[in-house]
UniProtKB/TrEMBL annotation:
Full protein name: DUF952-domain-containing protein
One Pfam match: DUF952
Organism: Aaosphaeria arxii CBS 175.79
SUPFAM superfamilies reported in the protein's UniProt record: ADP-ribosylation
Gene3D superfamilies: Protein of unknown function DUF952 (3.20.170.20)
Domain of life where this protein originates: Eukaryota
Length: 129
């Protein structure tokens, strides 16, 4: 599936609990990411719907804000050039970015943000594209 046009500036990884602080070089994979063989990512427009669908019972979420051109350029969580890639793949309700052959961590995560829910996640999340 083709990448969105224009390409997003940021992608986001949704976490149901706080990541380690300080952020390590390589974050452990979630069970879902490990089983699927890639890291699930969302654009700013997709995060609220994904949060409502999969994290609707949570009062808080943590978002890893990832600069698209860094991970698309194959930089891993340690900041090394590894040749990982973003593949845009159709998943039932849209085309999502999946990170293959790389990791997330301090070397490619721009920031970590805790978001508290007030109402739905759609109402609570306003993210940079």
């Amino acid at each position: 599936m083709p990448a969105p046009s224009p390409l997003p500036t940021y992608l986001y990884k949704i976490l149901p609990s706080a990541p380690p602080s300080p952020l390590p070089a390589v974050l452990p994979l979630s069970d879902l990411d490990r089983n699927d063989g890639y890291i699930h990512l969302s654009t700013s427009e997709q995060v609220p719907g994904t949060a409502d669908k999969f994290f609707g019972t949570f009062d808080s979420l943590w978002l890893l804000k990832i600069k698209y051109d860094v991970v698309a350029g194959g930089v891993d969580g340690e900041g090394n050039k590894v040749g990982g890639e973003i593949r845009w793949e159709e998943v039932g309700r849209g085309c999502f970015g999946h990170l293959y052959g790389s990791s997330l961590g301090v070397g490619n995560v721009e920031s970590v943000e805790k978001v508290d829910r007030s109402g739905s996640w759609v109402e609570s999340l306003k993210l940079e594209y």
